[in-house]
Design a protein that fits this description.
Elements lengths: L13 E4 L10 H9 L6 E5 L8 H12 L3 E4 L11 H7 L4 E4 L4 H8 L3 H11 L3 E5 L1 H4 L4 E6 L10 E5 L7 E4 L8 H9 L5 E5 L3 E5 L4 E6 L2 E6 L5 E2 L12 E2 L2 E6 L3 E3 L4 E3 L2
Parallel strand pairs: 1-5, 2-3, 2-4, 4-5, 8-9
Antiparallel strand pairs: 1-10, 6-7, 9-12, 10-11, 11-16, 12-15, 13-14, 16-17
Helix pairs in contact: 3-5
């Protein structure tokens, strides 16, 4: 469950990005994140844990500084012991915006899960600090995190692998690089387990800006695919054998391009 908010405060935005966000010519998504976080007065902390490239944190620091941010930090959290470093927790506490990079989401969950850094991220977001994550950093916002699965359009039994995420949001399951990597099948497989979940598939250079009212706005050059199983009449998941194609009746699908919105709590899509 997300951390509880404090009376009189609004939860910060949760901004999952589908990966490959534009960083140079028209960094619309990153610029909007920075604007929400305070513009030139923003304090952005980058967590490059998912990446195994040594320069990922410094590259994003440079990108944010070129957009206009004066103060950035990158936390070199490589092992679980790093995520318990009180100096890193103190630095994180200065943030007005937190950015988690792409890479391997299992590195994020196994290194950060249950640590002071993860707890601080959740608490800060509940207190109004904005969180943005790209690719792996997007997948981990969910309470139920997709870590792998089959490609294509037909869902199957065993067609998705799930692990606990950070739980900044608990009613959706997020997938990324969505249309580019043909991931509808695994998102359908994920929501077939329980219609409590809403599937959100993010194309590259596309983000969902989820506000404190649980309404998200689409920003970017691609689209967001929303799979809403709340009115599902039948799922064959319980009877299916490993690898079997699934029967799913009355699943609702929305394709939302930039400017469109979706109310997660009321499960309603609309245009601005």
């Amino acid at each position: 469950m997300p951390s509880p908010t404090i009376d009189g405060t609004q939860r910060g935005y949760v901004i999952p990005i589908g990966g490959a966000e534009e960083k140079l010519d028209n960094p619309e998504i990153l610029a909007k994140f920075i604007e929400l976080s305070g513009g030139k007065d923003a304090v952005i902390t980058i967590i490059p844990t998912a990446s195994q490239l040594d320069d990922t944190g410094s590259r994003y620091q440079k990108i944010f500084e070129e957009i206009g941010v004066k103060k950035t930090y990158s936390l070199p959290i490589i092992e679980r012991s790093d995520a318990q470093n009180p100096e890193y927790v103190q630095t994180l506490g200065k943030s007005t915006g937190i950015f988690v990079t792409g890479g391997n989401q299992l590195r994020l969950s196994t290194i950060l899960g249950g640590t002071p850094i993860a707890k601080t991220i959740r608490q800060l977001n509940a207190q109004g600090v904005h969180y943005a994550g790209t690719s792996a950093g997007a997948a981990i916002v969910s309470q139920h995190m997709i870590t792998g699965g089959s490609t294509g359009t037909v869902p199957t039994e065993g067609g998705v692998n799930l692990a606990p995420g950070m739980g900044l949001i608990n009613t959706v399951v997020v997938d990324q690089h969505f249309n580019e990597r043909n991931r509808l099948a695994r998102l359908l497989s994920a929501v077939s387990y329980n219609p409590f979940l809403i599937g959100v598939g993010l194309d590259e250079n596309t983000a969902a800006f989820i506000d404190h009212n649980n309404v998200f706005t689409v920003v970017g050059s691609g689209a967001i695919t929303v799979v809403d199983p709340s009115d599902i009449e039948y799922s064959s998941m319980a009877e299916a054998r490993t690898g079997d194609a699934l029967t799913l009746l009355n699943v609702k699908l929305h394709i939302l391009a930039t400017g469109a919105r979706f109310d997660i709590s009321n499960r309603k899509a609309y245009v601005s």
